[in-house]
Design brief:
Structural class: alpha+beta
Shape: extended
Helix content: 10-25%
Number of strands: 29
Largest sheet: 9 strands, antiparallel
Radius of gyration: 34 Å
Strand content: 25-35%
Distance between the termini: 107 Å
Length: about 600
């Protein structure tokens, strides 16, 4: 370091060395005389073979072209919003939102249309009756009852209007509207109805069919495939266990037994070919990395010495090893690739400061079944065949962040070893208004409402004198939100079983009719129940581990690369809370209390 003591800086800028032997000894001490990294790269040329994901196919769906304007999570996860559950209309909040939007749009044409649409019984919201058992789904919950009573006859059910337009091409938005008596008025309303349909389908991404075929209820997971051109064939990627809500490269496996997917209708998107790109390498830098000069202190904001990895924290040890020893030996070659691209590095030509050209091939070569081989971002090849590792990098068209709302439905699947069955406990149940409530409270309120209706019509039973101290109880009850799944043999097998949804009887006092079955109130457990005729629902036994699982439905929202906002109704699955006990028991002798004897 030059320290001039004169106004003339010529000698100071020369940086004269007074003790060259000391500098040589320090180089020897630091091992610089035995180093192999003598040259630095100054130029690089990268050769890539690129392709693009072009086809998508759900597990039980048809092959379609990939939509570049749609995130893959939205395509895979989206579920239909439940507007009808059993014989009851639900999601009142969205129904009102759709009705207000249509009345707002149509009144821009003529103010008289609003009153005429409110008078059409096809789009009305009916008021629930307190003494009707069919309306107990609403009247059992005070706030839900109040909400329906407040909007009945005053608001329009927008979903009924949307459903009427989508049912048949012969259904028109101006049907039963007296003011629309001329062709120009009818054309104006029809054009506005088309805008209304586009508005709703833009607000909530819905399946074109009744269900999204990627969701497999028997596995409680999403399953799909996608492919990209590879010469005369295709490279097919398969995802068989996607459920946690963050879709990335590690959810995909390469399917070597499938050469291509069916060609959908329409025009296929363009696919890129080989790419050769030249650039100047830059050194990798990060906060806290060791400085190149030994006598210079690093930034104190990042102290790698505070990291204390355990003996099992191999990832932390690898990062520390890279940061403290090899940090200055890494160079970066940045490449920008569009989403949905599959890049396969053919080679890298590096020119160093000595003018030498070095051909570098992709790391991680070897057998795909070699467990000692290690690489980053390499996809697994499905199967156990001894095949070469696939070194391609897949950039899936997924988003970085998804905003998730509160669970609308929540179910805990847990094992009950005492009763030797599995239970689906509905922790959060959607109400008819669109909001959710604790499944325990909903079940208690609904059961109490039905009991009150039976008590009003009940005939006093004859008095019977009980003299015994014990009574025989065939079966006890469990809370209504506990839905049983019983083991059932697979057809044609004496060993394999599945867990099939069953039902508990709803036993009400003073009810002369046979007990009704308690049905699930979440769409997660009602699979097949609303079909005509109802179909059984089975889950593979191995999908419910001993620790149980938690499944919930909620609204997801994200913004894509083109600025568009997508909202969909998605499912998540997580680890449960362990085993549970329902208290279900059969054939019990119960003591008769004094109060019960006196009543008898």
């Amino acid at each position: 370091e030059g320290r001039p003591r004169k106004e003339d800086f010529d000698r100071a800028l020369k940086a004269e060395v007074r003790d060259a032997l000391w500098m040589l000894s320090k180089q020897w001490q630091m091992g610089e005389f035995i180093g192999d990294d003598a040259a630095s790269p100054v130029l690089a040329k990268l050769q890539l073979a690129t392709s693009k994901l072009t086809k998508y196919q759900a597990k039980n769906g048809d092959s379609i072209w990939m939509e570049p304007k749609l995130p893959l999570e939205t395509k895979v996860e989206h579920q239909p919003i439940p507007f009808i559950m059993g014989q009851n209309n639900v999601s009142l909040d969205i129904r009102l939102l759709m009705g207000r939007q249509w009345l707002k749009m149509v009144t821009t044409l003529d103010l008289t249309y609003k009153a005429e649409y409110l008078q059409i019984t096809r789009y009305e919201i009916s008021s629930p009756q307190a003494d009707q058992e069919s309306d107990a789904f609403i009247t059992a919950h005070v706030k839900v009852w109040q909400h329906f009573s407040a909007v009945a006859g005053r608001n329009m059910d927008g979903f009924k209007f949307y459903q009427y337009l989508k049912e048949s091409a012969s259904n028109n938005a101006y049907d039963d509207i007296p003011s629309a008596d001329t062709l120009p008025k009818q054309n104006e309303i029809a054009a506005m109805a088309d805008k209304f349909i586009v508005w709703f389908e833009r607000q909530f991404y819905q399946p074109k069919e009744t269900q999204n075929p990627s969701w497999q209820p028997s596995y409680l997971e999403h399953q799909f495939r996608c492919s990209a051109p590879k010469g005369s064939t295709e490279k097919v990627f398969i995802a068989e266990e996607y459920y946690h809500g963050h879709l990335d490269w590690y959810n995909l496996d390469i399917d070597p037994h499938t050469s291509d997917l069916e060609d959908p209708e329409g025009t296929s998107p363009e696919v890129e070919g080989n790419l050769v790109q030249s650039f100047i390498p830059t050194s990798v830098t990060f906060g806290g990395m060791p400085h190149r000069r030994w006598w210079t202190f690093e930034d104190w904001k990042t102290n790698l010495g505070f990291i204390k990895p355990d003996t099992t924290d191999l990832n932390k040890l690898m990062v520390l090893d890279f940061a403290l020893i090899y940090a200055n030996d890494w160079f970066m070659f940045p490449i920008t690739m569009p989403v949905g691209t599959i890049a396969d590095v053919k080679g890298l030509m590096v020119t160093n400061v000595f003018g030498e050209n070095i051909w570098v091939e992709a790391a991680g070569k070897g057998s795909d079944e070699d467990w000692e081989k290690w690489g980053m971002f390499n996809l697994n090849i499905k199967g156990t065949e001894d095949v070469p590792t696939d070194l391609s990098l897949v950039l899936i068209p997924t988003v970085n962040k998804v905003l998730e709302g509160k669970p609308q439905e929540e179910v805990f699947m847990l094992r009950d070893e005492i009763a030797n069955m599995v239970w689906g406990v509905e922790s959060m149940v959607p109400l008819a208004t669109g909001k959710s409530k604790s499944g325990k409270e909903v079940g208690h309120e609904f059961n109490s409402k039905l009991q009150k209706l039976k008590d009003k019509l009940a005939v006093p039973p004859p008095e019977i004198a009980y003299q015994a101290d014990l009574r025989y109880q065939i079966i006890n009850t469990v809370p209504e939100q506990w839905i049983p799944f019983i083991p059932v043999h697979l057809e044609g097998s004496n060993r394999e079983i599945q867990l099939q949804r069953a039902s508990m009887p709803r036993i009400l006092e003073n009810d002369p009719n046979p007990p009704q079955k308690i049905e699930a109130r979440t769409s997660l457990l009602r699979h097949g129940l609303d079909e005509d005729p109802p179909k059984p629902y089975s889950i593979f036994e191995e999908e419910i581990p001993r620790e149980g699982i938690r499944i919930h439905k909620s609204f997801q929202r994200t913004r894509w690369i083109n600025g568009e906002v997508y909202t969909w109704y998605g499912i998540r699955k997580q680890v449960g809370r362990g085993e549970g006990r329902s208290g279900l028991a059969f054939d019990q002798l119960m003591p008769v209390g004094n109060a019960e004897k006196e009543e008898g």
